[in-house]
Amino acid sequence: MEVHAHSHTPRKKWTHYFWEFLMLFLAVFCGFLAEYQLEHKIEKDRAKELARNLYDELRDDSVNISLRVKNRLRQENSLKWLMAYFKDSSLSNVSKTFSIHFLYGIHFRTPSVFEARTIVLEQLKNSGSLRYFRSQELQKLIGDLSVAILQINDRQALENNIREQFLQPFTISHYDYEFDSRITSGGTLLFIDAIARYEKSDETIPFHFGHMENFDRKTAINVLGLFGMSAIRATRQQHFQKYIDLNTELLRELRKEYHLK
Fold this sequence. Notes:
Largest sheet: none
Number of strands: 0
Mean pLDDT: 88
Order of helices and strands: HHHHHHH
Helix content: over 70%
Radius of gyration: 34 Å
Shape: elongated
Number of domains: 1
Strand content: under 5%
C-alpha cells in the first residue's frame, strides 16, 4: 500500500504580512482622505453660496435703508415746520406749503418704515448653516445684525403705537379727506406718487383744516414733538445708524473672506 506524504505550504515571512497590512492601511487612509477632501470642498462651496446670498440680501437692504433715512429726514423737517407754524399762524386759510408739510409730516408712514429682508439671515440661524462660516468675526457680526434688526422692529412698533394713540385722532379731527381725494385722483394714485406730483405742480388745491375751534396749539406741538423728535428722529439716529454700520462692516467682511464683488 502506497502512502502519500502531505504537502506543506511554505510559511510566509513576517515582512509579507507587514506589507499587506501597510497596503490595506494606505488604501483605507487614502479613501478617508479623499472623502474628507470632498466633504471639505462641499462645505467650502456651500459657504461661498450662502455668503453670496447673504451679501446680495444685505446690499439690497443697504439701498433700502438709505431711502428710508432720506424719507425720515423729510418727515422730520416737515414735523418741525408744522411745530413752528402751529405756534401762532392762521389755520383758517392755509397755504399749499402747509398742506405738503402736513402730508409729509403727519400722513406719511410706509415710506419711512424699514423692513429688513431676513430670508438668508434666518436660514443661517435656524438651519445650523452658520457653522459653514469659519470666521468668528463673521458669526459675531451676523449675531449683532440680528439684534439690530430686532431693535429697529421694536422701535417702529413704538412709533406705530404713538401714531395710533395721538396722530390718528389728530388726523381724524383736522385732515381734509376731500383734499386727499383730489390729489390722489380719487385714490387711483399711490399716496407717495401723488404727493410728489402735487408738490412739483403749479396747481393749488384748497386744504380745509377741520375743527379749528377744538384745536389746542400747545398740545399739537407736543404731540408732533413726541412723534418727530422722540420717535422718528431717535430711531433714525440710533437704531437705523447702528444697522447701517453693521451692514457696511458685514459686507466688507464677506468681500474679504469670499472675494465677492
